[in-house]
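Researcher: Sequence recovery benchmark, item below. Answer with residues only.
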């Protein structure tokens, strides 16, 4: 599955801010717990998700917040995947009829594939829904020139009635 780095960074920042606030710390308090020269502005940009956080910096922040880095990353990962309604090992079900009439220009490769699958059905009672596993979603996203998360957002927007 291709990662939407911006969305992931924002979620990571929100989790860092939530941890800090849960512990009753201000940014200045957190800054004083760190063993490096990190400005209050830098902490703010990490929390807003507008600045990438290196692994070493993340471990340092987690240590100052008495949080295991792996626990924080696991929560962010679950939240990231949950935002798009897909568990890492599950994938998503898609109605081919909706994809075939999708107005999104960037979904053209996906639309052509859906049209071909529907043509194979030839009006039979074959199911119009298909299951796309994470690998298929990743490959389709690449073909459509978007991230997997972006593709999932567009798939969700196709929830209206098919024509």
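Model:
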């Amino acid at each position: 599955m291709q990662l939407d780095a911006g969305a992931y960074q924002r979620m990571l920042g929100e989790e860092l801010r939530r941890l800090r606030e849960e512990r009753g710390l201000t940014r200045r308090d957190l800054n004083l717990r760190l063993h490096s020269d990190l400005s209050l502005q830098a902490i703010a940009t990490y929390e807003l998700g507008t600045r990438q956080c290196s692994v070493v910096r993340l471990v340092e922040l987690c240590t100052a917040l008495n949080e295991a880095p792996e626990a924080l990353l696991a929560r962010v990962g679950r939240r990231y995947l949950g935002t798009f309604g897909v568990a890492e090992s599950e994938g998503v079900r898609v109605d081919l009829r909706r994809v075939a009439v999708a107005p999104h220009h960037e979904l053209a490769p996906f639309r052509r594939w859906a049209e071909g699958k529907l043509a194979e059905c030839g009006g039979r009672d074959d199911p119009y829904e298909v299951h796309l596993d994470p690998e298929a979603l990743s490959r389709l996203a690449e073909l459509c020139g978007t991230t997997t998360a972006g593709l999932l957002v567009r798939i969700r927007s196709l929830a209206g009635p098919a024509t």
